[in-house]
Amino acid sequence: MKYDFDKVIDRSGTNAMATDGFREYLFGDIKQLDLKCPDHELISMWIADMEFQTSDAIIKALKERVDHGIFCYSQASDEDYIQAFLKWAQKFYDWTFDVDHVVTSKGVIPALFDLAGYICKSDEKILIVTPSYAFFKHAADHNNLELVTSNLLYENEGYKIDL
After folding, report:
1. Rounded distance, CA 132 to CA 143, Å?
2. Residues 49-53: contacts with CB within 8 Å, 24+ apart?
3. For residues 81 and 27, what is the distance between their CA atoms, to the nearest angstrom?
4. Which whole number is the average pLDDT over 59-67?
5. Pairwise CA distance, residues 140 & 120, whole Å
6. How far apart are CA 59 and CA 64, in angstroms?
7. pLDDT, tens only, 70-117
8. Tens digits of residue pLDDT in 122-163
9. Which residues contact 114 (CB under 8 A, 6 or more apart)?
């Protein structure tokens, strides 16, 4: 299936954090912050916020849910979901495993917090490359683990990891 990732969609006025709320969210009350270019030219790079239109298949599924007329908390661990995940893992990664090993999480951040606690002993440290997603630090704090940072190095007009 071909998809046009270059189609530009004007998101201003849609209450999107990437266009309508990022200044207050990131910088608080700093209204006059000079970002060296107009806001509409920024590439926001938000977590899980895409700059391209949602695929037709997802739009269709959402319309079907809306047309049903009942909205609720949905289960992400029903059999159809798990089977779709198993097929996806097989197709894209040639990875197979027992269905009993599938575990769901309440979200990415709770999973990150749990994972840090599961894989790190209390006397171990967590190393992250910075700048990074703030919740990597919060996961270390939440689990009372020492955080060690490795700042990216700027060389030849680009960044690299300081190994």
Report:
1. 18
2. 49/16, 49/17, 49/18, 51/9, 51/18, 52/3, 52/4, 52/5, 52/6, 52/7, 52/9, 53/4, 53/7, 53/9
3. 39
4. 93
5. 9
6. 9
7. 888 776 678 888 899 999 999 999 999 999 988 888 888 999 999 999
8. 899 999 998 888 889 999 999 999 999 999 999 998 889 988
9. 105
Tell me the residue length of the chain.
Answer: 163
- Among residues 88, 82, 86, which one has the least CA distance to residue 104? 82
For the chain, the distance separating the N- and C-terminal CA atoms, rounded to the nearest angstrom, is 39
Q: Is 116 exposed, middle or buried (0-12, 13-18, 19+ CB in 10 A)?
A: buried
Strand locations in 7-162, DSSP E? 125-130, 146-151, 153-155, 158-160
Tokens 């006397």 correspond to 123
| 12 Cβ contact partners less than 8 Å away, ≥ 6 residues apart | 19, 20, 40
Q: Cβ neighbours of residue 20 under 8 Å, at least 6 residues apart?
A: 11, 12, 13, 14
For residues 19 and 11, the answer to whether their CB atoms sit within 8 Å is yes
What is each CA distance from 18 to 29, 115, 154, in whole angstroms?
A: 17, 28, 26
Residue 143 confidence (pLDDT): 95
